[in-house]
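Why does residue order matter? Because the sequence determines the fold. Keep that principle in mind as you read this record.
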Amino acid sequence: MVSMSVFHVISTEMVVGAFAIATLGTIICSISSIFPALGELLPSKVHSHLDSAAYIASIFGVFMIPAAIVTGYLTTESMGGQSSMSLNKMVFSGLCIGFWSGVISGRRLCGYRLWEHRGLSILQAISASLGFLMTIILGSIGGQLGRGETVLDLLPFELGIYTPPAIGIVPSLVLFVFSALTLGFVLFSQPRPIIE
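Structure:
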């Protein structure tokens, strides 16, 4: 019988792989947009394919995050229960979903013409890079939980991601309500950008 940890490894590798492709494609498209001299070296067909690959990979990665979360939860239960670092994984999972949802939303709302605007392409690259950073941190916390070590241990400083957040239930609820109101405002009351 295959253990739940095997399914967790499969789902997390699919998430990391998809987001690596999305980040790389987004950064290349953004660089070619920011620096027109470099953009001329990249054929428009290749640019279009990179944009499409980044868009599809980010959608696939966001759809795979719940599978990674569920299998991770079931894996930690089979290993003897939840630890305080699991709370950090939940926080970073929310940030990861948020950044990648922003990447997808920006690309969907603006279309391929997003790359014709420097500011939007910079914002897209920053969002993708931060989303991938959150993915790396999630993998690092998972490595710490599962094996007691992580590749981020090679850094000469401590990130502080292995200690539980010191936040109570009331501040958590206030932050949840605030984020729900902000999401509602962004989705329903802001005008859609018109790219000309």
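Residues 4-188 form one domain.
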